[in-house]
Amino acid sequence: MESTDKLTDTNAILAYLYETFPLCFIAEGETKPLKIGLFQDLAERLADDSKVSKTQLRVALRRYTSSWRYLKGVKAGAKRIDLDGNECGELEQEHIDHAQATLKESQEKAKAKRQAQAPKNAPKKPVKKAAPKRAPVKKERPAPVAAPVVKLEPAKLEELKQKQRVNVKLGATPVPGVVTDINKEDVHVQLDTGLTIKVRVEHILL
């Protein structure tokens, strides 16, 4: 059966959103600006979901939209999208300006923090005299050995059974787990990370 434990870790909630709304929340690479008022749509869509609370959803949404990856995607020509990935309006210039200013401020803070953490008055390394240059000796490098590629195939519903090891498509990298329950086309999988999720059979790889 599906776990009813509430998710409290923000990263776990984001992983859940990546899986539940893959056309809206993008796990890796360039993101797209979200529809204004998306939180209300999200709260309504997950109203009967015992895994997440409105408070935790708000925290996860704030982290997603304040990431550098998201702020870089708020740019001229980009279209806002809803939970199903449908375009729903262009960005206004003030929103673009605000995102770029926020990104610049965040990057400057991170740079200042790194500089503050750097060891102060570090002893200077003694300058070594350059050795006379010698003609480089060419060494034959061995040809690289290609690592074996494990090809995962999409699973078929009739092939799945409980306690079976599978891989679930989450973002770019499949995540291993174990099938805990099968309800029509919905498959409940407990990931090796401890998170239990419900996915469609087309997201299962063998």
Can you give a write-up of this model?
The protein is α+β, with helices and mostly antiparallel strands. 31% of the residues lie in helices and 18% in strands. The protein has five helices and seven strands. The strands form two sheets. The protein has a five-stranded antiparallel β-sheet. It has a two-stranded antiparallel sheet with strand order 1-2. β3 and β4 (173-183) form a beta hairpin. α1 (10-20) packs across α3 (54-66). The longest helix has 25 residues, at 93-117. The protein is extended. The model has no long low-confidence stretch (mean pLDDT 84).
Topology at a glance:
Blueprint: H1 10-20, H2 38-45, H3 54-66, H4 68-73, E1 79-81, E2 87-90, H5 93-117, E3 165-170, E4 173-183, E5 186-191, E6 196-200, E7 204-205
Family: Belongs to the ProQ family.
Domain ProQ/FinO: 5-119
Region (Disordered): 104-143
Give the % helix.
25-40%
Report how far the terminal alpha carbons are from each other: 21 Å
Average pLDDT works out at: 84
- Note the beta-strand portion: 15-25%
Question: Order of strands side by side in the largest beta sheet?
Answer: 6-5-4-3-7
Q: Helix tally? A: 5
Low-confidence stretches: none
Count of extended strands: 7
Content-based structural category: alpha+beta
Task: Encode the helix/strand succession as letters.
Answer: HHHHEEHEEEEE
**How would the global form be characterised?**
extended
Largest sheet, described in full?
5 strands, antiparallel
Radius of gyration: 24 Å
Main location: cytoplasm
Pfam families: ProQ (PF04352), ProQ_C (PF17516)
Keywords: Chaperone, Cytoplasm, RNA-binding
Subcellular location: Cytoplasm
